[in-house]
Amino acid sequence: MKEYSVLIMYSKELDRDVKVYVSLPKSYFETDKYYPVLYMHDGQILFNDFEDHNGKSWGIMESYKNNPNLPELILVGIASGDTRNDELLPVSIDNNNGKFIGGKANDYMDFIVNKLKPVINKKYRTLKSSENTGILGVSLGGVCSTYAATNYSEHFTIFGCVSNAYIPIRKDMIEIIKKSDLSRVKKMYLDVGTKESENEKGRIAYLESNKEVFDVLKEKLGSERIKFEVIKDAQHIVADWEKRFPNIISYLFKG
Q1: What is the mean pLDDT of the chain?
Q2: Residues 193, 233: contact at Cβ < 8 Å?
Q3: How far apart are CA 230 and CA 232, in angstroms?
Q4: CA–CA distance, 70 with 132 (Å, rounded to integer)
Q5: 195-217 burial string, b = 16+ CB within 10 Å, else e?
Q6: Which residues contact 141 (CB under 8 A, 6 or more apart)?
Q7: Element housing 91 (H / E)
Q8: How far is Cα of residue 42 from the mean position of the Cα atoms in its chain?
Q9: pLDDT surpassing 80 at residue 110
C-alpha cells in the first residue's frame, strides 16, 4: 500500500481535534475503480511505529507487502486521545476510585458517521454502501465495534472485534445485543487470546466474557455471519494483533 495521509478534523461531539490516517490501496492511482472502506479505532498504532508511544504499530503496510492477495481496502484510522475510554465505552462505569468513565460511544460513533464518513466518501473513490463499509477495533475498540453492530448497522455491516475488553460491561453488552436488530450485519469477527492478562484470573475473565458475548451474537447471527477464534498464547499486545490482521480482513472482506 502507498504511504498514508493524515487529516485533522475538529469534533464538536468529542470536543477535540481528531487525527485521521488514510491509507489507499496500491492500485488506487493505477485504476479508476472504487473500494470498500474499513474504519479502525486507535489509528495511531496502525501504520507507523513512531506514531505509537510504545514504539510498535500493526505494520499494516508490511502486511500488504507480505500478503499481496489481501483484499484491497481504503483504511481509515481514527486516532484515540486522552478520552479514549470515555469514547469507546457505550455505558458509564465506576473505575473503582469514585470516578466514572465511558458512556460517550454514541458521540464518538456519531462523529464517524456524520462528520468523518462524508469527508472520506467525497475525497476518495469509496464504495459508499453499508455493505462495503466495515469498522474494526481492539480491546475497548472491539467493544465499540460490537456496539456499532447493534446501533449503527445502517452505516456499517462488517465488524471486526479483536481482544475485546468486555469485562467491565459484559452484562450491559449482552443486554444491548439481546435488544438489538442485527439483521443488517453481513459479517462479524470476534477473537480473544489465551494470555490477554498477566494473571490467571484476568485471563479467565477475558475468555469467559468473550465467549458469553459470542454466544449471544451467534443466537442472532447464526454461524454463517459470525466467526469466533480463541488464539492460543496470544497476549494483549500490538505484535499479536499484527499477526492476525491478514486473516481477519480476509475473512471480513473476501467472499
Answers
A1: 94
A2: yes
A3: 6
A4: 15
A5: bbbeeeeebebbbebbeebbebb
A6: 40, 41, 42, 80, 88, 162
A7: none
A8: 8
A9: yes
d(CA 147, CA 106): 9
Contacts of 245 by beta carbon, 8 Å cutoff, 6+ apart: 58, 60, 63
- For the chain, the residue count is 255
pLDDT band, residue 2 (cuts 50/70/90): very low
Element (H, E) at 92: strand 92-94
The structure's pTM equals 0.95
Evaluate whether 162 touches 227 at the Cβ level (below 8 Å).
no
> In angstroms, how far is CA 199 from the centroid of its own chain?
25
Domain boundaries, the chain: 5-253
> Domain 5-253 adopts which CATH fold?
Rossmann fold (3.40.50)
CA angle 234, 238, 239 (to 5 degrees): 65
pLDDT for 1 equals: 45
Pick from 210, 153, 222: nearest CA to 182: 153
